[in-house]
Amino acid sequence: MSKRSKLFLKGMRRKTKIAYLLVVGVLVALTIRVVYINVANGKEYSEAVVLQMDYNSTDIPYERGEILDRNGNVLANSEKTYSLILEPVNILITEKGKAATRAAVLEYFDVSGDDFDKHIANEDSYYEVVLKDLPYTKVKAFEDYCKTDEGADVIGVRFETVYKRNYPNGSLACHLLGYTASGNVGQGGIEGYYNDYLNGVDGKTYRYMSGLGGVDSETVAAQNGETVVSTIDMNIQKIIEDNITEYMQNTGAKQIGIIAMDPNNGEILGMASSRTYDPNDPMNTQALRNMTVTVTQEVEIEGADENADSLISVESAKKNTTATTESSEDGTTTESSTEATTEQKNVKTEEVEYDFSKMSDEEFHSTIDGFTSDQLYEALNYVWQNYCISDVFEPGSTYKAFTIAGAMEDGVISDGDEFLCDGSQVVVEGESPIYCSYRAGHGMVDVKRALAVSCNDALMQIADKEGPETFDKYQVIFNIGSKTGIDLEGETTGIKYDVENLNPTELATSSFGQGVTTSMIQMATGFCSVINGGNYYVPHVVKRLLDSDGNVVENMDPVLVRKTISKEVSDYMKTYLQAVVEEGTGYAAGIEGYTIGGKTGTAEKLPRGNGKYVLSFIGFTPVENPQIMLYVVVDEPHVEDQSGSGAGAKLFNQVMQDLLPYLNVYSTNGDDVAYDGTEEPLSSAFDTDTETADTEAATEDAAAEDTSAEDTSADDTSTDDTSADDTSYDDTADDSYTADDTWEDDSGTGDDTDTWSGDEDYSGE
Known about the structure:
With about 775 residues, this protein is of the alpha+beta class. It folds into 3 domains: about 60-165 and about 200-230, Penicillin-binding protein 2a (Domain 2) (Alpha-Beta Complex); about 280-385, no CATH class; about 395-735 and about 750-765, Beta-lactamase, CATH 3.40.710. The chain is built from 20 helices and 29 strands. Strands 2, 3, 4, 5, 10, 22 and 23 form a 7-stranded mixed β-sheet that branches. A 5-stranded antiparallel β-sheet has the order 12-11-27-26-25, sandwiched between helices. Helix 9 (about 235-250) runs antiparallel to helix 19, helix 13 (about 400-410) packs antiparallel against helix 18 and helix 15 crosses helix 16 (about 505-510). It is elongated and about 145 Å long. The protein starts with a helix and ends with a strand. Mean pLDDT is about 80; it is low at about 305-340 and about 675-765.
């Protein structure tokens, strides 16, 4: 070999060695870097890899939070169920596996051969849902079979965990709870209002190809929803609902609503109405069976219509509604009609009332089957609606407590002031008088007596002394015509006259609860402030939120909005309200041995003179230190003389008799009825926090607040047909005495109805 060749080979070896060392060095450096990354940022990069290498993923559902009553009883929870999933891509790998899987699925589940074949038709699919809501017992039986030699060839079958919302007490507290639609979307009640808290976050299992050609997985755990501890007492709720059911079965009414509250902090202890449904099956039309509902229907009008002025374009969505009432023998009542037209045809839209309680089963099912989907939803929505917060009505004489409390607080009247009731009051010279419920007149009555006998004449004089500005100021202070802010979906506002429209007649009739519309929750919350020392608390149905481990996330402390009246005036009002029960119109609400205060209400419905009334009683006990407020409303009781029935006070009495032993409120004469239930009362060990508000401290905090009248939105302050031009208010009945303080009637209702009826006069309780 020449010298030149040797030099060339030597140079090549050197270059090769250098290159080799460089390669080794780079590999060592990369190895060190990979190790560093894996140690320092391994989790972060692993998650990124999983996301990028997503080969197949499965959701891990979260568990929606429970809803508990104040004592820890479960009102709503989520039950674990299973869905049967087939993976055709794996089942079809071999005929043997397909046959074994088909035979096993048909054996252990309610699946036909055709259904199985249909679900595996897409040979590229990894996910075919065959069955839902399977119990664990069925799943376990199948899985046990697959572990045997006989089931060893079963392939491509798996189960997904699915949580199904469950209400273990059926319809109990249905409007307070609400229900859930698909996708864990809360509808109404606590389910709707606290939906974001109850819901959690789904987890996920990612399956991806590993570096060796296998399949690896990575799991991100689900985050369960929070538990809601409500203020509701399940036993109080059941007592209320049982009494409503009994009344509806024995007497009947168009509607009943009852609210039980702790007057010292705004907690709702129970709330129910005669509307009811099972939140486990909210679409079940059987809930309509004993209801009276109104649905909209359209009919085509052929040719010209004599009411051409009311025919308008459907596209404009402008309506001209006429209030008419026509009854028929089949339980339907046409209440109002709206006529409309398009370029193609004239369409008449009618609102038709269906009284399903008067129909046979065959008629009921035939009517329901004939509804369109919109009409069915309209009917069911009526049942789902919470009467206690979503419906409004004229409260009648229960409103007098606000009129007197406001006048006393403002110094317009004093405890000893007297008023002459001669049976009527001419409010506007030259116009018809407004009558008292006792048209012979109560004679001279002081403030206490005026409330006890529910004297309209005295109340009109008190409102006149207040004047529009002061009267309206206290309407706002007591939150009339505005939402209370209760933590439930669907609250409505009601209507009141604003100060500009409180003309003499409107002022006079508003003083005794006509011309103003309120919801039950508005009346209940304002009344609580009248009896608790003047503290207006936001009503609420939730006490606290817990995480999935039971730790407190948030306490829902009572919220004091304002002072309505002073403690001194509140003490006077409690005495006056006690006189209503012991000496006046509310005697049917009294229970021997207990101090009870309250106020009756008998409000005639529109159109006046139709004999239809809303009867109510709002009361509390004990008078010395109120622990519970109970508001009962009976809309159109099924009795011959609605106004004289005393339905509100009587039902209040029955419910309160059942509640008092459970609440450990004892009589003064020792004649207590022992509570024989198994649940603990309000002072249960579960209810450990003291959320009864510190009234004195709250009073000091609120004393500095401006309690002057607040603005209400324009659409909440005008009235409709309840204005003064509706000139026959005949609210006769359950709260009147004769001038010499003796009852005209000894039937037990407090009825002093006479035979007078007029078209141009107001009268009433």
